[in-house]
Amino acid sequence: MKQVGFIGAGSIAEAMIKGVIQNQLLQPEDIWVTNAANQARLLGLQTKYDVNITSPGDLSFVEHADVIVLAFKPKDIMNGLERLKPFNLKGKCIVSVIAGVPTRLIEDTLNEAELSVIRTMPNTSCAVGESATAITPGRWVKNQDLINIRRLFEAVGIVEEVEESHMDAITGLSGSGPAYVYYMIEALVEAGVKTGLEKEIVQRLVYQTVVGAARMLQEAEEDPAALREHITSPAGTTAAGIAVLAERNFPQAIVDAVCKATDRAHELGLVYQSELSD
Ligand SMILES: NC(=O)C1=CN([C@@H]2O[C@H](COP(=O)(O)OP(=O)(O)OC[C@H]3O[C@@H](n4cnc5c(N)ncnc54)[C@H](OP(=O)(O)O)[C@@H]3O)[C@@H](O)[C@H]2O)C=CC1
Ligand SMILES: O=C(O)[C@@H]1CCC=N1
């Protein structure tokens, strides 16, 4: 893999760019980025990461890039693909990080026979090399492309290869997942501040609590339920706190959130499939 071009310069594109540069999988000069309209954003990325940019809407790097990352919103899929169509995509690998959009739609819309398309679902923790990324190959993926793209995402976290039928659920689970965790952290901080502690102190305590819990999961050979039990003394403070969460059906709220996010990913895919057949 020599040159990677990002079409879309938003949150996930930046997280990936930051991660792959930090992990030295790619050099800044091998990365190209464009977007739809926001020139200031592109200049900001160039200043921060020293990557190549083109003017908004200028996809000329597609001619020499080996890998093209589709990093725009699902609503922009048809427009984004139409703009790619005029290019000779022979031998190139198209990597989509777009929620809900099936590989088949990309394959069928782009004007290239037997195109290598890989659908992926990373999360923004790419930026610190800690993404949980799922990848699924399209119909005509070359083995070497799959190896290369796996390597790209392994440079910024862990990778699971899955059947495409699981991608919407993964989008709702680990694609959106950091947001659920941040939401809980926001609430923990709010609770700490309410006790009268300084916000900075609360933040340090809470962030480290979350980092420590995550490391325990990775390093202790016990599941989360067992780790929770170790903290929960009979009739102690944790038991009192957990009882409130159980009473408010915290686990069910999380399950419902993931299901809803999964349904939303599926809906996004259906919308654009039906557009294709119109
Ligand atoms: N954010 C996340 O945590 C994750 C997001 N994703 C997926 O990644 C995709 C991007 O999400 P995110 O980065 O959050 O979105 P952002 O809104 O932050 O960025 C979207 C980018 O797409 C650009 N864009 C829109 N249309 C076009 C076009 N036709 N050609 C070129 N660029 C275009 C926008 O340009 P401009 O600003 O100029 O309009 C912008 O740079 C989505 O499909 C999402 O499902 C996947 C995993 C995680
Ligand atoms: O919210 C979204 O649609 C995207 C997909 C996964 C994370 N963010």
The shape, in one word, is elongated
In CATH terms, the superfamily of the largest domain is NAD(P)-binding Rossmann-like Domain
Number of strands: 8
**Might you state the CATH topology name of the largest domain?**
Rossmann fold
CATH classification class of the largest domain: Alpha Beta
Order of strands in the sheet with the most strands?
3-2-1-4-5-6-7-8
Oligomer: single chain
Portion of residues within helices: 40-55%
Total of helices: 11
The average pLDDT value, as a whole number, equals 96
Strand content: 5-15%
Low-confidence stretches: none
Question: Ions, cofactors, ligands: which are bound?
Answer: NADPH dihydro-nicotinamide-adenine-dinucleotide phosphate, (2S)-3,4-dihydro-2H-pyrrole-2-carboxylic acid
Rounded to the nearest angstrom, the radius of gyration is 21 Å
Please summarize the sheet with the most strands. 8 strands, mixed
Catalytic activity: L-proline + NADP(+) = (S)-1-pyrroline-5-carboxylate + NADPH + 2 H(+); L-proline + NAD(+) = (S)-1-pyrroline-5-carboxylate + NADH + 2 H(+)
Family: Belongs to the pyrroline-5-carboxylate reductase family.
EC number: 1.5.1.2
Pathway: Amino-acid biosynthesis; L-proline biosynthesis; L-proline from L-glutamate 5-semialdehyde: step 1/1
